[in-house]
Amino acid sequence: MKPRGYIFDLDGTVYLGEHPVPGADAAIRALRARGDRVLFLSNKPIARREDYVSKLRRMGIPAKLGEVINSSLVTARYFQRICRSGEKVLVVGEEPIQEELLKHGIWLTEEPVEARYVLLSWDRGFTYDKLDRVFQAWKRGAEIVASNPDRTCPVDGGELPDTAALIGAVEAVTGQRVDRVVGKPSPLMAQAALRQLGMKAAACWMVGDRLETDIRMARENGMGSALVLTGISTRREAERSPWQPDHILDSIAGVPDLKSR
Amino acid sequence: MKPRGYIFDLDGTVYLGEHPVPGADAAIRALRARGDRVLFLSNKPIARREDYVSKLRRMGIPAKLGEVINSSLVTARYFQRICRSGEKVLVVGEEPIQEELLKHGIWLTEEPVEARYVLLSWDRGFTYDKLDRVFQAWKRGAEIVASNPDRTCPVDGGELPDTAALIGAVEAVTGQRVDRVVGKPSPLMAQAALRQLGMKAAACWMVGDRLETDIRMARENGMGSALVLTGISTRREAERSPWQPDHILDSIAGVPDLKSR
């Protein structure tokens, strides 16, 4: 049997806040033991990839930095590709995504007049002043990129408003859609994952808890898909969704038993 | 000739920031001299009605408090009607609208768990924390009301993000439309203006610079309408708009010469 690739969402799939989903460690160990490849793919832009590696290890799931891709990394690579020399990005976002951009050689600015691009990302320090800077940059022609489209992020005891809040605010004020959203379900994320795994989409499963990001990305990019019911989307939502998963699992524990489509 | 009612928008129509539109004072004087009635109707929720009276007087336009209606006043009256005893409102908005609610006997709260309603309004002190409070109140069943739908507010040297930003952020996170938007083009504003004037809609002109608020309210509530080109909407936008004004004027100076439809 040829090895397959398993791409796992993190929050709501592998763990909930600080608590691993029961059986997550055993499932991932079983996949690795039989020669399959594992990758973790998160839209969450407020943590560092190194933090995810540590967190997974704390939960008994060995992981290397190269096995974790988040929207911050893919966003930084995207700007690396589109920014010409001297072009600057005005960022609304937290430290980790700003660091990732700097590591990739992207020039940042806080001045709307200097911004060729704006990056919108989840920012718990978001203020009206930041919104106004984005708007003034847009009026001067800046293109607007968002790190991820998530409405909310699950946390212990509930959920918090995510980057969608910022996208919604900006779109309402400009009267236009933002130019690009990088995170899942964007093909940029799918391509980054496949390149890292060194596999074709048809040989991969995407396992996640969100229909509109995880399952949609899988469907639109030729991967197999499994929805787990430990996070945001419910079985009932799956039944009515335009993005039908190939399988619905109670949790990640069932992943080693997935049968090819 | 029977007297007619003239309902004027303020920002972008009567003045721009601190500068009166040339001829505004003479036009309004001419209407009053011939026995017509005048009312000022603003969506802007970050100033007091008393401030508008002072500002108009500074510009040589006599006005009484009863001739100025803003979205804060109509919002406060709306809550007065819908709030049952003990029901509280969580407000995202500036001092003037909070004061107007308190003057009308509305109980306010900052605790999501106590909020039966949420009011979204233009707030230059808007933060992520406030957004999260709104979201947590909504999750507990609070209804969401917005003071006005404006995308931006014209100011000297440009425009600033208005209440639409907040509505957009909240709708993106909840995945639902807010329950009610009070300001123009809502019929609540039209009714408040007509009641104050003591006139029927057919006897009134609405004069404003925004197609989607001023002209739309006039069309949907049976008033005559004149778009002035001193503010946000352009002649080109008017040509493509679903809300066609009866007349397009270079400025408020032409209002005394409006001919009945």
Structure description:
The structure is a homodimer of 261-residue chains. Chain A has 261 residues and is an alpha/beta fold. Chain A has two domains: 5-43 and 184-257, Rossmann fold (3-Layer(aba) Sandwich), CATH 3.40.50.1000; 83-181, Rossmann fold (3-Layer(aba) Sandwich), CATH 3.40.50.1000. Helix content of chain A is 35%, strand content 22%. Chain A has helices at 24-33, 49-58, 71-82, 95-103, 128-139, 163-174, 187-197, 211-220, 235-240; strands at residues 5-8, 15-16, 19-20, 37-42, 68-70, 88-92, 107-109, 115-120, 143-146, 152-155, 158-161, 180-181, 204-208, 224-228, 247-249. In chain A, strand 10 and strand 11 (158-161) form a beta hairpin. The longest helix of chain A has 12 residues, at 71-82. Chain A is globular, with a radius of gyration of 18 Å. Chain A starts with a strand and ends in a 12-residue tail after the last strand.
Low-confidence segments of chain A, given as residue ranges, are none
Determine the oligomeric state from the structure.
Answer: homodimer
Largest sheet of chain A: 6 strands, parallel
CATH architecture of the largest domain in chain A: 3-Layer(aba) Sandwich
How would you concisely characterize the structure shown here?
2 copies of one chain form a homodimer. The first copy, chain A, has 2 domains: 113 residues, HAD superfamily/HAD-like (Rossmann fold), CATH 3.40.50.1000; 99 residues, 3-Layer(aba) Sandwich (Rossmann fold). Helix content of chain A is 35%, strand content 22%.
